[in-house]
Amino acid sequence: MDGANRDGAGREQDRLQARASEMELIREAQAGSRTAFDTLVRQYEHQVLRLALHLTGSEHDAEDIYQDAFLKAYRYIGNFRFECSFYTWIYRIVTNLCLDQLRRRKTRREDYAVVLDRSGGEIDRLASVSDDRSFSNPAKELDRKVLGERIQAALEKLTPRERMVFELKHYQGLRLRTIGEMLSTTEETAKNTLFRATKKLRAQLAELR
Amino acid sequence: MNCELAHERIVTAAYGELPDEQTHELERHMAGCPECNTEREQLLALKVLAGAHPVLEPDANLIARSRLRLEEALDALPPKRWYERLGQRMMNNFASLQAAPLAACLLLVAGAAAGSLGGYQIAKYRATHTAAAAQTATAERVRPQPVSMTEAGRPAPAEIASISSIVRQPNSEMVEVRYNQVVPQRLQGSLDDPAIRQLLMLASENSASAGVRDDSVGLLAAECRAGHSCQAAGIRDALMVALRYDKNAGVREKAMEGLEPYVAEDMRVRDAVLEALMNDSDPRIRTAAINILEPVEADTSVRQVLHTVANSDRNPRIRTVSREVLSRVPEIQ
């Protein structure tokens, strides 16, 4: 028990130290340090791209979201007042850009299973997913491709906010409270939105079960 | 718990967000509700199906391209001018204040409390000094002792009315002395003015100057002899006090003159005069007491005192006068 407590205390201390060093970076960036801002970008760029890529299905769109998000962060970092974590703040920018993207784009159902690279070439999403079984089955591969398309189509039926909440909860693993902060709403509202999203998805995918 | 609520909590529980006590409550419901069990199974199936749309990790090329593009864009931005940075810093400071409503409220409350306390102290100080001025309305006649203010600005002894308390701090050489200060004031009015009368009565008791006491007792005695509402205002009592206790014989003589009209009707005045007859050190006072006691009737104490004085007074003339009064006025019993 003592060892667990010490580990817990140690992790908390590490977290506080990390938080303190991040605050220093933010202050330096607010003071105009490009190096400090670049360091912050390095810390969050992976998560930003992962979210944008999964939501948009396009590397080009994901790059645009990455660009817009960090340019906005650079321009408005002086307004950051440490009322929330920088993580929440940057994610709030990214989710808003993603929501704008979801509202604007016209989807093509036949592209759901693939990701477009920068040149427009297709990257088979499902081909990069490891299969639990020791052999690959072409029939099963096709089934999974169709299934992926159906999932994507069902997700497209959600409202942008429902899609975003489901994305952040199911795929990104964030807590409802954090999701509420990112979407400038309450945890309860995020919970209700998740409930509606799962209900719609179950209705859409009923015949697949 | 109804099924509608249970359906919502199933979703929350499936994503690990349901509090423990609600989980227990949900499990109890699930134990007896096949429909909700089906609901949970469907949700879990959805979670499995959603895995068919996996999250891809961005590859290194994507990251590198994105980073390079961002750096080019940042390099192309013009640098912030000094006034833009200054304005930003001021906005941040202002925002910090806005973001601390509790601190702002506390500051406001503290300021209001300090202002109220200060106002109360000032009002209290003024009230104290107004009362002190009313008591020292004749202070104009009192010549302050020639002691100047100290260099530290402490009040001179002549300005101190009284000492109210002395407290020594424990284990310390520090002593706190509370005192009341005298502020010279002036009041002008007629002898019928209650405020003037009040000040005259105070002067008859508290003034350090015999001349002031003599003037005040003389004026009060004149009022009593003139029959101007002497008792109701407490003037008669002030004269009796002056007769009994004033150190100046002239003051005591004037007090007796003022009490003369009331010797016959007021036993208290008669007693004061009898005391003066027996105890006053000045023969003029004792002689005056004998003279004003003559018309008293049906009061054995007067006769007894006259007998005592006729036999034991140290002044022979007073003994003689006492005997003459006793022989001349048989009505005095």
Description of the molecule:
The complex is a heterodimer of chains A (209) and B (333). By secondary structure, chain A is an all-alpha fold. Chain A has a domain at 1-106: RNA polymerase sigma factor, region 2, helix turn helix motif (Rna Polymerase Sigma Factor, Chain: A, Orthogonal Bundle). Helices cover 69% and strands 3% of the residues of chain A. Chain A has a two-stranded antiparallel sheet. Helix content of chain B is 63%, strand content 5%. Chain B has a two-stranded antiparallel ribbon. The longest helix of chain B has 35 residues, at 101-135. The chains are: A mainly alpha (209), B mainly alpha (333). Chains A and B meet through α2, α3, α5, α6 and α8 of A and α1, α3, α4 and α5 of B.
Q: SS-based structural class of chain A? A: mainly alpha
Rg of chain A, Å, rounded:
20 Å
Strand order, sheet with most strands of chain B: 1-2
Percent strand of chain A equals: under 5%
**Beta-strand level of the residues of chain B, as a percent range?**
under 5%
- Chain oligomer state: heterodimer
Name given to the CATH architecture of the domain at 1-106 in chain A: Orthogonal Bundle
The span between the termini of chain B is 108 Å
What would CATH call the homologous superfamily of the domain at 1-106 in chain A? RNA polymerase sigma factor, region 2, helix turn helix motif
Principal-axes geometry of chain A comes out as globular
Overall mean pLDDT score of chain B?
81
> Largest interface, and how many residues on either side?
A-B, 53 and 40 residues
Element order of chain B: H for helix, E for strand: HHHHHHEEHHHHHHHH
Main sheet characteristics of chain A? 2 strands, antiparallel
